[in-house]
Structure formats: C-alpha cells, structure tokens
From TrEMBL:
GO cellular component, one term: plasma membrane
Protein name stated in the entry: Large-conductance mechanosensitive channel
Membrane topology: Multi-pass membrane protein
Keywords on record: Cell inner membrane, Cell membrane, Ion channel, Ion transport, Membrane, Transmembrane, Transmembrane helix, Transport
Pfam family, one: MscL
Organism encoding this protein: Duncaniella dubosii
Protein's cellular compartments: Cell membrane
C-alpha cells in the first residue's frame, strides 16, 4: 500500500477530523481566555492590589549594556519575568476550571440519559386482537391471489 493511500485513510478517519476540530476550537478558546485574563481580570487584580501590573514584574539577572555615546543597546537585559508567569498561571486555572465545568455538565447529561426510564413497550395484544390480525392477514393473502 502506498504511503499516500495510507495517509489518506489515516487523515480521513472520523476521530482524526474530530480531534483536528477540537484543536482548532481549543486554540480559539485559549485566545479568548488569554484576552479575558489580560484585558479584564488582571486589570481588576491590579486595581485591587493598588495599581500593580503583573507583566511589569521581573527579576533582572543581568543589566543591559548600553553604549554611553550612542545610547545603542549592546547587550540586552536578561530577566526572569515572574509577573508574566503569574498571569499565565491565572490563564491556566481559568481554562482548567472551564474544562472541569464542561465535563461535569456532560457527565450529568449522560447520567440523566442512563437514569431516564425506558419507554413503556406496547402492551401485548389480547387473544381477540391476535385472532383478528391473523384473519386480516389471511384475507389479504386471498385478495392478492
């Protein structure tokens, strides 16, 4: 079997396509959550903490080297951006919580489907109904001949 044919069979499986759709939707969802954290939650946290902007917080490991005469940066500053890291943790916690809530809702729906009573089966026909049905079928056979 050729590699192209094998790849086509692999790529056209339903679960691979479903997974690809999930990845695309997940990426878009991640952008929405990042925007929520960056543009709504963290400014509110900043106001609550006295105007802190977490993305500005960093530990400088090595200062930048700047040419005194031309003010040109010869060697950039080396930093540990712990404020950005905290913001990323908040992103993760919100995404994890949203996924938890979604899975919990799906599991509840599945449980309700399992617990739903089976629809009642049609009652067995009485002896008279069975006899009348048999007679009807015999009469239809005779008419067909």
């Amino acid at each position: 079997m050729s590699i192209i044919k094998e790849f086509k069979e692999f790529a056209m499986r339903g679960n691979v396509i479903d997974m690809a759709v999930g990845v695309v939707i997940g990426a878009a969802f991640g952008k929405i959550i990042s925007s929520l954290v960056d543009d709504i939650i963290m400014p509110l946290v900043g106001v609550a903490t006295g105007g802190m902007n977490f993305t500005d917080y960093k530990w400088v490991i090595q200062q930048a080297v700047v040419d005194g005469a031309t003010k040109e940066v010869l060697k950039p500053e080396v930093t540990l951006n712990w404020g950005t890291w905290i913001q990323t943790i908040v992103d993760f916690l919100i995404v994890a919580f949203c996924i938890f809530v979604a899975i919990k809702a799906i599991n509840q729906l599945k449980r309700k489907e399992k617990d739903a009573p089976e629809p009642e089966a049609a009652p067995e026909p009485t002896k008279e109904e069975a006899l009348l049905t048999e007679i009807r079928d015999i009469l239809k056979e005779k008419e067909a001949k």
